[in-house]
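Re-run with default settings, no changes from the original entry. Doing this only to confirm the output is reproducible before filing.
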Amino acid sequence: CPPSPSSEWYNFSKDPRPPSLVSYPGSGSTLTRLLLEMATHIHTGSVYGDISLYNNSGHQFLGEFNTANVSVVKTHFPVGPTHGPEFEYRAATRAVILLRDPRRAIPSYLNYQYGDSIGSKHDVQAPLRVWKEWRDEPGRVETELQKWINITRHWAERLDDLHIVLYEDVIGSRASGVEALRSLIQFLDLGKDMSDDAIACVWEEILGKKAQGKGIRRSKKYIPAYTAEQHSMITSELEAFADSIDDNGISERSSLIEAIRLYSAKVIPANDMAEEREMI
């Protein structure tokens, strides 16, 4: 694979109102943006203007402060402020919904918050003690799960022009990652002639065995776990959410429902329900 050029050589798009990249915080939007930028050499944007991403030493997200002329615009709306760029971008007419199992996205969001508190947002995992205390705050998991549901529902019910991406597909394997990225690139009308080998080279550079992560991937010291009661609550809420969505014959909504049911039916090993396992 040829070496990837620095992001300072990437291009801006000509789209004045690009699709939104929607997700619950902690679902892998930064990683997805990184892969998309490196594959297409087109900047991605955000409503948040995160200076740490703009100046990231591994890969500078030079479109971070842009909501126009980029391939996608990251947002977590409607969970956020009711003014400013995030609120203003609620009127996007196309959306990529990035889904991650909420059982994994919720602790990932805590990692971001913890990292932000110590000046390292994207590459640290909160200590086990911090995760347990945060998880067991009254109503904490229920509140975060409702945010996950509300974000997904808002965009899925408001728009017909949707594309669903599963984080688990992006990182799962080289084959599933290439397929997920290929489908995303096609939805965005970018690089239609791009070969799967070119996409695979990008995937290997970021997620392969010898990958360095470009400063946005966290090393894991433990696997976050939940109580049996919390698992049961998550399962029942996701089942109810899936039942409430009307696909109206739209294939991407059907894909969304299928993904939510997959998450709700996830089988959790007994030792993962009882206690976190330290990773060697």
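The beta strands are 20-22, 45-46, 73-75, 95-99, 162-166, 222-223, 277-278. The longest helix spans residues 140-158.
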